[in-house]
Design goal:
Layout lengths: L1 H10 L1 H20 L4 H10 L4 H11 L4 H12 L1 H7 L2 H5 L5 H6 L3 H9 L8 H29 L9 H17 L4 H17 L4 H15 L1 H7 L1
């Protein structure tokens, strides 16, 4: 498995740059809310929900009821339903690793898996598993480091959350260069812009994803023929 591990590590280096620093921001915020490194480790290991973990800090600080946490979590992370549909058949073929692959399919891991083509002699399933595992580890490490730093240092967090936006831009540009057809990327971009203009920042994401899925589903045959 050494070759698959090395390949997966190289593929996930851009994610590490975003996850470690953004995870540190989460860890610091969680530490300020009264939860130390153990809480940061457990949250990132078992919740592993990125933006929802930031929302979770506010919910914990406000002693929000469980139903509020559940509904908020569903609304924030419902986009993963769309991501999972594209990989469900491949994940099913991964045996005992199937539950973990479903659990660990974050935005960034999805982007990595979409562009990942296993080199000759390697199984895509093995490379995908290690890529998901590495991304998860980056987030856990960043969260724990942030919690430790939050207890020891006074750190100005202004602007650190932009690292995730920068990561998405880099991944988008990388996929634009790799794939000969830019139609899927343009469809997603147009759906996002139109949805944002019509429904506002708080409501556009699910609508944009649903519209993109429907349009790509209708154009699937033509896109596959071009590919």
């Amino acid at each position: 498995m050494r070759a698959q591990i090395t390949y997966a590590l190289r593929q996930t280096i851009p994610v590490a740059c975003g996850y470690i620093f953004l995870g540190m921001a989460f860890g610091i915020l969680l530490s300020e809310a009264g939860y130390g490194p153990v809480g940061a480790f457990a949250s990132s290991l078992f919740v592993y929900a990125g933006s929802m973990q930031f929302v979770m800090v506010a919910l914990l600080a406000a002693n929000a009821p469980l139903y509020t946490v559940a509904v908020t979590t569903f609304l924030v992370n419902a986009r993963h339903i769309f991501y999972g549909l594209g990989f469900i058949e491949r994940f099913r073929g991964m045996g005992r690793r199937f539950p973990y692959m479903v659990f660990s399919l974050t935005d960034e891991t999805y982007s990595v898996l979409c562009s990942m083509e296993a080199p000759q002699g390697m199984r895509w399933e093995d490379c995908a598993f290690f890529a998901a595992l590495f991304d998860h580890a980056y987030w856990v490490i960043g969260s724990v480091l942030g919690a430790l730093a939050g207890q020891a240092l006074a750190i100005d967090l202004t602007g650190i959350d932009f690292s995730m936006t920068a990561l998405f831009v880099v991944i988008f540009v990388d996929q634009w260069k790799q794939f000969p057809s830019h139609v899927p990327a343009l469809i997603g971009l147009v759906c996002a812009i139109v949805s944002l203009a019509l429904f506002g920042q708080e409501n556009f994401l699910l609508i944009a994803l649903a519209a993109a899925v429907v349009i790509l589903g209708l154009l699937r045959g033509r896109l596959e023929e071009k590919a």
